[in-house]
Every structure is written in structure tokens, then in C-alpha cells.
Amino acid sequence: MSFEEFRALVDRHATVGIGTTAIPGVVVSRMTQGGSQDESSTGTILAVVAQGTKRLSVGGVVHDYGAGQYLVASVDLPVSGHFADATPEHPALGFGLELRPEIIAELMFTAAAADFPRPARGESSPPAIAVGDTSERLLDATLRMLRLLDHPRDIPVIAPMIEREILWLIMSDEQGATVRHLGLADSSLSRVRHVVRWIREHFAEALRVDELAELARMSPSAFYRAFHAVTSMSPIQYQKSIRLQEARLRLIADPGDIGTIAYAVGYESPSQFSREYRREFGASPSEDAASLRGAARR
């Protein structure tokens, strides 16, 4: 088994950006620009770095990880991050696998999982993002998954087995609690994920924490603590990040009507929207949209 082979396979199959593969749930990435800040969402994913280093910030908490390390995200969070040293000649390379709660739940109810500690009543939720070192066994499994890209006929039969192996190894690792809670339907992390999904679908609506707590089937105080423990931000901060990311996407497509976009994503006044947009992205909406369109043309 060779980390160099893992890096070479990612390098061979990845185009610029994050791209899907013939294996369901598996992505490979090639990032060629370092230093510039990128606003995005994590999704629920295991990401293994083959080359380069990245700094990710969510809710004021910073995560650094590089070649030979992995990151798991069990909740779809708005994040800010950048690659420290990516260039076209030496790109940042990575492997990603979607974390599917239904498969994690199956694994949690096997006899082999009986020794995993179950969350106690009132226990704090694990953070939604965790970083760890890639073990030799995990690297071996991801390498075998990537090799399947050269044997497409084998993918429907072998890929699901390797996916379960990778998930099991992560669940058994030092950061396993973050993944295990994803498979427990009644864990506080799963309840927070349910609310996060609702906020994403209704981001333009006014939020009331007591109504979100009811949706999570928790008391308001317990819900607020759990939400902050999982996401490193309050529900209102989470909603604001989603609103601003959505506004940024709309501005790239139609930069001319900032007021309409501000109202569409839930702001009551364009001036408030512009203040918060500048605070988040470091430029006014019109300046940022012009910069992004120029970068896309280049």
C-alpha cells in the first residue's frame, strides 16, 4: 500500500474543482489556487487529503488539516476556508466520500457495534466537524475504492462493501463519535441536523428559537446548547450565513438588483444586507460580484 499511489490516483482522476466520479457518493478534487478565501458548505462528508493543506473556519473555530489527514463533517455547515499552498503546478488534491446516515445506522445496529458507547441522556453533542490522522487501514480502503475507477464493471458490486468498510473504520477511530451520532435517529446531533435542514429550506423566513426547539423535540435551552455544540454558531448566525451565501450566488448571476436580492433572501432593508455582506465577505455586494465574475472569466 502506498500513499504515493493514493495521491497519483486522485491526481489522475480529478479535474479542476470538486468532481463526481463513477462511484456513487465519491468525489475527487483538484484546487489550483491558494490563499484566497472561499465561502462554501461542507455537506456530510469524509475528506481525505492527498496533497496540500487547508484551513477551515466555522463559527469562529478553525480546523487545519493536510496530506495524510482526514476531516469528517456530520452536518452541512457554512464554512470559510482556503488552501495554503495550492498552485497549478502543485495543486491541492483530495478524496471525498458522502456520509450516508442510513448506512451508518445499519452499522450501529450490528453486533460488532455493541461496544460503542451510546450517548447518555443530556450528554453534549460532539462537534459536527472533526480532524484526524489517516490510519494505514483507512488509507488502504480509500486506495482500493479509487482503484475501482479503472474497473467500472466492478463498481456496483465492490464499491458498497468498501464504503461500509471505510465508514466502519471511521466510526471506530478517535473521531468516531462525530460519525456514530449521525446514525442514531434520536441523538441530539440528528435532531440538530433535522433543524439545519429546515433552516436551509426556509432561510428567508423569520426564526424563533422556541419553534426550532419544538421541531427538534427539545427544550429551548437544551436545543440552543446542542445547536451551538454541533455547529459552533447560534441558529440565527447559521441562518445569516446561509442567507449571505445564497445572496452571493444570486449576485453572480444578476448583479444589477441588489435590493431585490436582499429582500429575496430575507433581509428587511438593503442597507442592513450590504453591511452584513461586507462584514462576511470583505467587500460590498456589487464589488464582490464584479470580482467573482472577473475571476470566473479568467
Automatic annotation (TrEMBL):
The family database entries (SMART domains) matched by this protein are listed as: HTH_ARAC
What are the entry keywords? Answer: DNA-binding, Transcription, Transcription regulation
Q: Where is the HTH araC/xylS-type domain positioned along the sequence?
A: 193-291
Checking Pfam families in the record gives: AraC_N (PF06719), HTH_18 (PF12833)
* Positions of the UniProt region annotated as Disordered: 278-298
State the InterPro entries in the record: Homeodomain-like_sf, HTH_AraC, HTH_AraC-typ_CS, Tscrpt_reg_AraC-type_HTH, Tscrpt_reg_HTH_AraC_N
UniProt-recorded Gene Ontology molecular function terms: DNA-binding transcription factor activity; sequence-specific DNA binding
Instruction: Tell me the protein's name.
Output: AraC family transcriptional regulator
